[in-house]
Amino acid sequence: MNQNDPNEDVEIVNAFGAYHDFWLIRPDEIEFEQFQHYFGRKDAPIRLSDDVINYIENPLKWVPNIYPGRHETSTGYGLANYGVTIIAPPAGERFRQICLGWAQIFAQGPEPLILTQGWTCIDDGERAVTNNYVAVDWSLSGTSKEALAAWHPYRFRVSRADLVRDLEHLGEFGAQVASGEYFLLHLGI
User: Fold this and answer.
1) Helix (H, G, I), strand (E, B), or coil: what is residue 67?
2) Which helix (H) or strand (E) holds 9?
């Protein structure tokens, strides 16, 4: 094993799965609560894989948001993983800075980027299970170092050029949101 290559002997998959869609919308085009016709569309201006969103999610939790609901609208922080999030003008600049910061970091990496997000193992010989944190109580019967050996880092591959371009584009969306002329509609997986 080459100690200089952290990816040697580790399975690396292409970023895949569900996507998070981002739409820049003028408030006079649609109300916050009238977002349903965007569900299921594949033509969002920006689409990021769930793997990427999970990788960059912690700083995104600093962005104030609006969760439009059927019966009630609430506020919070970050992006709704499985639902709708609105980034309104007060949060546009923070969102812009975070996206551009990630773009600058990723621009320094190799092509393609190999990113690590959580841990994975094979459950029942078929299904991959991922967890961001693995806590082990060694006093539990049946827990062994051999069982833990089945766990390995979940690594995925993504195009550096595409990811940097998309994050810079999201940063531009953030600037337009900050201008007060738009809001950003995010549709989680």
Assistant:
1) strand
2) none
Global pTM value: 0.81
Q: What is the pLDDT of residues 91-149, one digit of tens each?
A: 999 999 999 999 999 999 999 999 988 777 655 444 444 554 444 444 444 555 555 56
Of 62, 80, 47, the residue nearest 165 (C-alpha): 47
Report how far residue 107's alpha carbon sits from residue 99's, in angstroms, rounded to the nearest whole number: 12
Taking the C-alpha atoms of residue 5 and residue 14, their distance in angstroms, rounded to an integer, is: 18
Please, how many CA atoms are within 13 Å of residue 113, restricted to the half-sphere of its CB?
21
| CB-side neighbour CA atoms (13 Å) of 55 | 23
103 φ, ψ (degrees, to nearest 5): -60, -45
Interatomic CA distance for residues 18 and 155, integer angstroms: 17
Q: Virtual CA dihedral for 171, 176, 182, 185, nearest 10 degrees?
A: 0
Q: Which residue from 98, 56, 71 is spatially nearest to 184, judged by alpha carbons?
A: 98
- Tokens representing 161? 């050029």
Residue 154 has, within 13 A of its CA and on its CB side, a CA count of 20
**By C-alpha distance, which of 51, 23, 52, 20 is closest to 163?**
52
Token representation of residue 1: 């094993």
H/E element holding 177? helix 160-178
